[in-house]
Design goal:
By secondary structure, this protein is mainly alpha-helical. Helix content is 69%, strand content 0%. The chain is elongated and about 45 Å long.
C-alpha cells in the first residue's frame, strides 16, 4: 500500500473518485466507461460512476473498487484484532456501492 491516512481518506466515495482521477491521469486509455459517464470531464467523476462502470466491467473501475475492498479488509481486520467487536456495520454510499463486488468475490 502506498497511501496513508485514516479509512475515510482511503475508502470513502470522495477517495474512490480521487484515486480514479489520479489513475486516469497516469493512463488515459483506461476507464473509457467512466469518462463516458463523466461526459469527458475527469473533475465530474463521482464514486457512483465508478460503481456503474464496474458493473459494466470497466477495468479501471474494477481495479479501483478492488483496491478499496483491500483497504477496508485490512482496516476491518485490524479493528477486529484490536477491539474484538461483535458486529461491524458499514453504511453510506460507498458501502452500498461495494456490496455487489464484495458479494461477488465471496462466491468466486
Amino acid at each position: 500500500m502506498r497511501e496513508k491516512g485514516c479509512i475515510e481518506v482511503l475508502a470513502s466515495g470522495t477517495a474512490i473518485a480521487r484515486r480514479t482521477r489520479e489513475r486516469l491521469a497516469q493512463s488515459p486509455e483506461l476507464g473509457a466507461q467512466i469518462m463516458e459517464l463523466a461526459a469527458g470531464d475527469p473533475f465530474a467523476i463521482r464514486s457512483e460512476m465508478i460503481g456503474k462502470a464496474a458493473q459494466s466491467n470497466d477495468p479501471l473501475a474494477k481495479e479501483i473498487l478492488e483496491q478499496t475492498l483491500e483497504y477496508l479488509a485490512i482496516w476491518l481486520g485490524n479493528t477486529v484484532d484490536l477491539l474484538e467487536p461483535e458486529v461491524i456495520i458499514l453504511g453510506g454510499g460507498a458501502g452500498e456501492m461495494l456490496r455487489p463486488i464484495s458479494t461477488k468475490s465471496k462466491s468466486e
